[in-house]
């Protein structure tokens, strides 16, 4: 689990060794006849691997929480996907905050008529890798991974932090026959356990003192592997927990406790009073400390942009799960590198010196945790920070940690709906209403080159978050590769671009493509094949999980075709307007034709980013309709 930044000064001599609640129901290396004979998972016959048994058993010792883990997995196919590598991540830090001990692993496999066992060697199959910044990873590489093999490993994890539990996911990428989690705390501690999934409520075993918890689930299906899913963490059957109170801090005294947090308001106030954080929030470092810096401009926005650019370019931020600044303000000014809190707090400090109010917002990052936040003061659901500033009377969200994100946008991985607003005496979970207009505008014209061969001239204007994506393709070859990945093989001629991401949150491409003549009598023109909606990605018959797009988006085409001499317009797509019952997406296709010219305008508007699974059939229908319309060609006939 994450190293916890609020220090819990619990007297260690009060905590005596508490043996774990019960031994594992399996013995390492001993397999039942049913396990050896299993070839198909009854409730998920297509599964290629299955967890036969897994368990986490957490308990206290004098120096921290210890958790004994055991995993037993069977391979059910010929392992064409290279299954068999496992990783255990932990944080040593400077003071051995976490450690992995008692690691052992073996594989049992069939060799002809015999079943053999290989005990994994520390030198060959087990490696501890330093990931940097105090993080480590144990890597297990199983040999003899083939149909019928049973892979098994166990270990103990020590964690000096008492406040946040690692938790346990019962549902993972492969199905499980049995999954168990047990946690036992000292009598004088009480933990708030957070369960996700109705199945856990039905099997929960909780002691009368509410200091011992156990859940065992059987026949657990794998997580659905569906496209357009934000974070599978939201849909897992899982349990988490955090230290809530003890007999030494009564519930009525939680609001004034230095140890426990009863509300987001209390948590924000205490965090802002922290040793490092408080140095950024006060006026202890006078403006004279920065004699060469002149930020003041004619408007607050112009001033804020100068401050933002300075911090963004001159200070480094490393990826870290630590939810406090690494350094005090004077130390960070000297070192010029830290984590997201160091950098965004410096940005906040400099804005404050210019009379611009701002405060930190803790956020989770996409794909790393829950997108739906837990309402209780559970800090471990966050991974990073952004900044909320009030500039010229408007709220503006900023993040100085990513040099690719322009002023007024945060990196896509931090574009989340809600966060923890660390405002003194107003700490709260709240909405992150970041205003953006993300989309792509296509301008397409029919031209002739110097040899009178027909070409399409393309201008693609990417806006806001689409500009951050489009800005990666500053060479014709890289964009050609992107098109090829989507089944479009095109040579881009006269390629150029205009990068205005920093100034206008816009990126523009210009290029031309040749038109191939279908026959001596006809020319086929396909002006919409570069559309993001030209291919329907929803091919499943049904859907289990909600459909999640990155953000609301629009795409428009403005096509202008001057009919070349010697040709006439023979056929072109008909007009169409379509939407779905929820109005979450709509499509407009309009044309205006004359003897010498054809003009077509289209617009797709994705008005929300999340659709419930019940709307999948509607979404699939309209996406099929859009893709079909975008694939209809324009036909010119030779006179």
Automatic annotation (TrEMBL):
Residue span, DUF3857 domain: 71-222
InterPro entries (alphabetical): DUF3857
Annotated Pfam families: DUF3857
Full protein name: Uncharacterized protein DUF3857
Source species of the chain: Algoriphagus antarcticus
């Amino acid at each position: 689990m994450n190293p916890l930044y609020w220090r819990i000064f619990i007297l260690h001599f009060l905590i005596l060794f508490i043996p774990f609640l019960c031994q594992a129901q399996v013995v390492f290396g001993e397999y039942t006849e049913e396990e050896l004979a299993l070839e198909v998972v009854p409730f998920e016959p297509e599964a290629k691997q299955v967890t036969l048994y897994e368990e986490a058993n957490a308990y206290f010792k004098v120096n921290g929480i210890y958790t004994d883990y055991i995993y037993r997995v069977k391979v059910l196919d010929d392992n064409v996907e290279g299954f068999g590598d496992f990783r255990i991540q932990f944080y040593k830090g400077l003071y051995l905050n976490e450690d992995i001990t008692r690691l052992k692993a073996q594989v049992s496999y069939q060799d002809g008529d015999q079943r053999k066992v290989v005990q994994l060697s520390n030198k060959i199959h087990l490696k501890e890798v330093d990931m940097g910044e105090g993080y480590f990873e144990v890597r297990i590489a199983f040999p003899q991974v083939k149909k019928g093999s049973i892979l098994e490993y166990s270990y103990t994890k020590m964690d000096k932090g008492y406040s946040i539990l690692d938790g346990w996911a019962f549902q993972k990428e492969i199905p499980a026959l049995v999954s168990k989690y047990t946690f036992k705390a000292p009598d004088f501690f009480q933990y708030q356990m957070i369960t996700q999934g109705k199945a856990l409520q039905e099997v929960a075993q909780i002691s009368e003192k509410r200091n011992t918890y156990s859940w065992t689930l059987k026949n657990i299906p794998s997580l659905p592997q569906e496209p357009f899913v934000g974070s599978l963490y939201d849909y897992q059957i899982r349990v988490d927990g955090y230290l809530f109170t003890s007999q030494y801090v009564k519930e009525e005294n939680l609001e004034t406790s230095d140890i426990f947090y009863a509300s987001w308001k209390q948590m924000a106030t205490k965090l802002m009073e922290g040793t490092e954080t408080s140095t950024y929030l006060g006026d202890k470092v006078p403006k004279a400390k920065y004699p060469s810096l002149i930020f003041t401009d004619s408007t607050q926005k112009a001033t804020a942009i100068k401050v933002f650019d300075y911090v963004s370019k001159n200070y480094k931020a490393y990826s870290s799960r630590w939810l406090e600044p690494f350094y005090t303000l004077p130390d960070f000014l000297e070192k010029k590198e830290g984590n997201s809190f160091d950098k965004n707090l410096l940005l906040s400090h400099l804005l404050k010196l210019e009379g611009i109010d701002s405060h930190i917002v803790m956020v989770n990052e996409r794909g790393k945790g829950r997108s739906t936040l837990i309402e209780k003061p559970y800090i471990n659901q966050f991974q990073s920070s952004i900044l909320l500033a009030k500039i010229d009377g408007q709220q503006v969200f900023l993040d100085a940690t990513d040099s690719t994100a322009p002023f007024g946008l945060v990196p896509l991985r931090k574009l989340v709906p809600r966060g923890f607003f660390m405002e003194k005496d107003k700490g709260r979970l709240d909405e992150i209403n970041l205003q953006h207009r993300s989309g792509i505008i296509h301008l397409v014209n029919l031209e002739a080159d110097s040899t009178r061969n027909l070409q399409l001239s393309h201008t693609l204007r990417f806006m806001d978050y689409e500009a951050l994506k489009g800005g990666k393709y500053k060479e014709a070859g890289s964009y050609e590769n992107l098109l090829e990945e989507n089944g479009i093989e095109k040579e881009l001629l006269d390629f150029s671009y205009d990068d205005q991401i920093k100034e206008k949150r816009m990126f523009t491409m210009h290029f031309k493509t040749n038109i191939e003549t279908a026959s001596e009598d006809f020319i086929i023109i396909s002006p919409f094949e570069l559309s993001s909606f030209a291919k329907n990605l929803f091919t499943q018959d049904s859907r289990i999980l909600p459909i999640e797009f990155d953000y609301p988006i629009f795409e428009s085409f403005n096509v202008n075709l001057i009919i070349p001499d010697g040709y006439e317009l023979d056929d072109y797509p008909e007009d169409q307007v379509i939407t779905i019952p929820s109005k979450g997406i709509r499509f407009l296709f309009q044309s205006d034709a004359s003897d010498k010219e054809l003009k077509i305008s289209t617009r797709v508007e994705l008005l929300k980013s999340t659709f419930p699974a019940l709307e999948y059939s509607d979404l699939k229908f309209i996406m099929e309709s859009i893709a079909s319309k975008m694939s209809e060609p324009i036909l010119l006939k030779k006179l």
